[in-house]
Amino acid sequence: MNNLEIKLSDDGSHTLYNKELNENYHSTNGAIQEANHVFIKTGLEPIIGSKPSITIVEMGFGTGLNALLTANFAKENKQQIHYIGIEAFPVEDELISKLNYPGIIGGDSQKHFDKIHQAKWGGIGLVNNYFTLQKVASKLEDFEPRKAIDLVYYDAFGPQVQSEVWDINLFDKLFNFMSDKGVFVTYCAKGQVRRDLEAVGFKMERLEGPPGKREMLRGVK
C-alpha cells in the first residue's frame, strides 16, 4: 500500500505507519514489547495447557507480528494452536519482507515468519508441528468461525480512527462464538470499549499496559 511506511519503534523493532489514518500498527514505545505484553503474556500464557488445542482469532492481522510470537510460543511450549488472522487490508509482501522482527526475536522466527507470509489467504497453512494458520481477508462482520474461539487478540486500529471495528455488535458476535471461559485481550483501555464488552457478557478487568501505556483490557466469557 502506498499509504504505508516503515518506522522504527523504541525497542528497535519496526512498525508500519498508515499515512491516510495517521495511525501506527503498533506502539511506537516498542512494537515487540507491546505484542508480547498484551497478547502473549496477558492473553495466551494464562490459558496455556487448558485444553489440547487452542483456537485463537486475531482481529487485525497486520504485519503478522502477533502470529509470529504465537507460533514461536506454541513450539516452545508444545501447545497445539489453530490461529485465524482476520485482515480487511492485507499488507503487501514487499513491505513485509523489510520488517526486522525475525532478526530481533531470533530462534525459529525467520522460518516461522516466512511460512506465515507464504501461507495463502483463504487457506490453512502449517507453520510448525504445533501451529496452523488460517488467514482471512475479510471484515470481522463477514467472518464465521467453524469452531469455538478460545482466545481473541483484538488488535484493530484504535476507536478514534476506526470506530466501526469497535462496535458493540461485533463484540456480541465474538462473545457468542467463544468457548466457555474464553479470553478477550486488547491494548485499548477506553471506558466505552470496556462498558460495551461488559454489556455483551464479558467479565472485564483493567490490567497494567505495555511500556508507555498505563492500562489494557482483558475479558473472560
**Biggest β-sheet: strands ordered side by side in the sheet:** 6-7-5-4-8-9-11-10
**What is the chain-wise order of helices and strands?**
EEEHEHEHHHEEEHEHEE
Low-confidence stretches at least 5 residues in length (pLDDT < 50)?
A: none
Number of domains: 1
**Fraction of residues in helix:** 25-40%
Beta-strand share of residues? 25-35%
- Main beta sheet, described? 8 strands, mixed
Task: Indicate the CATH class.
Answer: Alpha Beta
| CATH architecture grouping | 3-Layer(aba) Sandwich
Tell me the Rg in angstroms: 16 Å
End-to-end separation: 37 Å
Number of strands: 11
Which structural class do you get from the secondary structure elements? alpha/beta
User: Helix count?
Assistant: 7
Report the average pLDDT across residues. 96
**CATH topology category name:** Rossmann fold
Structure keywords:
11 strands, single chain, 221 residues, Rossmann fold, globular, 7 helices, alpha/beta
How would you characterize this protein structure?
- With 221 residues, this protein is of the alpha/beta class.
- It has one domain (4-220): Rossmann fold (3-Layer(aba) Sandwich).
- 30% of the residues lie in helices and 29% in strands.
- It contains seven helices and eleven strands.
- It has helices at 31-44, 65-77, 93-96, 101-105, 109-118, 168-177, 191-200; strands spanning 4-8, 14-18, 23-24, 53-59, 80-86, 124-128, 131-136, 149-154, 178-186, 203-208, 215-220.
- The strands form two sheets. The chain has an eight-stranded mixed β-sheet.
- It starts with a strand and ends with a strand.
- 42% of the residues are buried.
